Structures are given as structure tokens and as C-alpha cells.
Amino acid sequence: MTSPGRLGILGTGLVALMIAPVLIVGLLIGGVAVTQPSETTANTSALPAGAARLIPELERVLNARCPELPLPFAAAHINAESGWNPHAYNPQGRAAGLYQFQEPTWISAGGASWDTAPPPAEADVFHPVRHLEIAVPWLCANLQLVRTHLADSGKPVDPLDALLVCHIAGCSRVTGSASGIPTAGEAGCDSGCAETITSYIDRVRIQAQQLAATPVPVVLDGLPTPTPFTGTTNGCTAPDPSSTGCLTPATRHALEQLLHAFGAPGAGAPIRSFTCWDAHAWNPSSDHPRGRACDFFPGQAGVFPEGAELANGWRIAGWLRTHATALQVRYIIWQGRIWSPSSPDADGWGRPYTGGGIYDTNDATGGHYDHVHLSVRG
């Protein structure tokens, strides 16, 4: 829910604009109309490990209280707010729990007040199941409110996007804008406000699409088997064709074998571009400055791949994984997941990638969604 911590970005008038919709919507909870069945499956491999045990509870609450809210969308919304941490707390905004509710909104939705900041550990806002049981009907009421408004006004915005506007900036931003998503100068929204709202919607929508997608089977037909590496490790001595730096012999071998399998990089090719050696000043412990890592981009850097580019990324990751022994693979990072020969899969391909406190795992590059990272032993 909108918090004072976001107000510095969104504009100083946001609190006043937000409170009125909150109190009005609270009256609508008992009259929510069910119009569409919810999507009842979500590919949770892109979510933090803690989400797996709560997804069934979210699905149960959605089916009982808000079937029209798609499960992948609801899961992505929670991930954008709290990263599925039930005890998440924003000290600036005094927002708590999975959906990051502020206390006045939480009370209006039916939750208990808290007297301390942060709330005590036993507070219902921090209890994940209770949080979902209170938050989901509240969100459903907002969804019904904006759906009715959009239908009456003829605004073209998807009601789910309008729901996100309500959540981050208040429902008056929906009713007070021409399209339902405010631009700079509308509904008390300045340029920072408009940009933050748009970015928030894009972030939730992109991950919702990823969660709704059926995992594409990795088909390796037609790809050659690589020649195993039989050399010795003697430091970063081989030239890197992607830079003026160097690679270890094992890394150079893996690179050559992969390019032989998938062809030369370029627009429309399975590998659009690649980069290996890099100083990585922001992460000196990386394998890149040691010449032991390469990143392979199936599409444009900084963009979440879709369609054929996403499938090509999975083929690259799958081929490297299949031939991990021959190629001396240490680990692979792709689509917010990390896999290594020594660790079993958990909740999908590999296990959730945390970013090590250095990378923003919700970012296309930080989460390794736009590129396959390969680290090589030796």
C-alpha cells in the first residue's frame, strides 16, 4: 500500500488523495461481484523460495474471496511489494506485511491496529495467512470499484492496472486521470509520480506474465555435443574475443564450444551478443575479472526476453547444464534462478537467485533475466 516512504517520489499531496478512496472502498467489501474465473496455476520457479509454501494459501483465499483476481498477478503483486517476506516492514512508510499495508488501511480492511513501529512480531499484519485473508478481499473491493469506474467512464485501462494504481498511489489517481493511469500533471501527479506508477505496473505485469507462462521444455535436438575440456588451469591467459581482457583456458574452451553449437552472435541469432571479461568494480568477487565467466544475451540487454528469445535463452542454459561436466561448469544463472552441479533443484530449475545483496533481482539484468551467466571452474 502507498507509504510516506514513496511520497517523496510521488508528490506531497498523495496522502490526502489516498485516504478518501481507502475509506469508501472499505464499504464495498461485502458486495464484490465475481465475473471471471481466476487463473489457478503459477510457475513459482521465478519467485523466492518462501513463496512456494504460501502460494497454496493465496490460491485458497483467491478462490474463496476473489476468483476474478488471477493467481499469477496476485503472486507478482506480492513479490513487488515485499519479496514474499511476511515480516517486511518499511520504516519510512510504516507499511507492513506481504502487501505492505499502512496501519490506517489495515484497520479499515479489518485488521488489528499496532501500537509500535514496527508492529510486534505477533501482529496479524505479519501473519502471512491472516494477512492474505484480510488483504485479498480489500484488493478485490478496489478491483470492483475501478472496474465499475472504467466501465462507466469508458477509460481504456485494464482494471488490473488500475488496481495497481490504487495500491501504490490511491484510487483518486484512477478516477482523476483521463485514461485511468495518470500522466504528469493529472490528478496531482508530477513527472516522478507518473514514472513511478508506470514502472510499478510494468514490473508487476512482466513478472505476472512469467508466472503465468508454462515452462518451455528445453529441446536440445540438433545441437552438437561439445568436446570435453582436457587442458590445464594456468590463470587468465587466453584472449577474450569480447574485450581487451583475458579468459582462463577452460572458459575460452566453453565459449568456443557454445558458439560452435549456437552459431555466431548477431541480431536474430540465438545469441544476440555476449561479454566475458569485465573489471566488475561494483562486484570484485565476481568471476568476470578473473576470466572465468561469460554472459550470453538472447535478446536486447536490459529487456525481459519473450517468445523465441526466451526459448533461445532456455536452450543455451539447458545445453550448458546438460554438458556441465565436459565444459567445467561451476554455475549458471538465468531467469532469476541459479543452478550448479553440486546443488539440487528447488521449486523448479535450480534455486532462487538472491543477488548476493549486490544485484536487484527484479531488474532484467540484475536478476539475470536478459542474459545467461556462465561461470567456469578454473
TrEMBL record:
Keywords linked to the UniProt accession: Membrane, Transmembrane, Transmembrane helix
SUPFAM superfamilies: Lysozyme-like
Domain ARB-07466-like C-terminal: 244-359
Organism: Pseudonocardia kunmingensis
Transmembrane segments: 7-34
Keyword Phosphoprotein belongs to the record: no
Signal peptide residues on this chain, from the entry's feature table: none
Family matches, as InterPro entries: ARB_07466-like_C (IPR058593), Lysozyme-like_dom_sf (IPR023346)
Entry keyword annotation includes Membrane: yes
Protein name listed in UniProt: ARB-07466-like C-terminal domain-containing protein
Lineage top rank: taxon: Bacteria
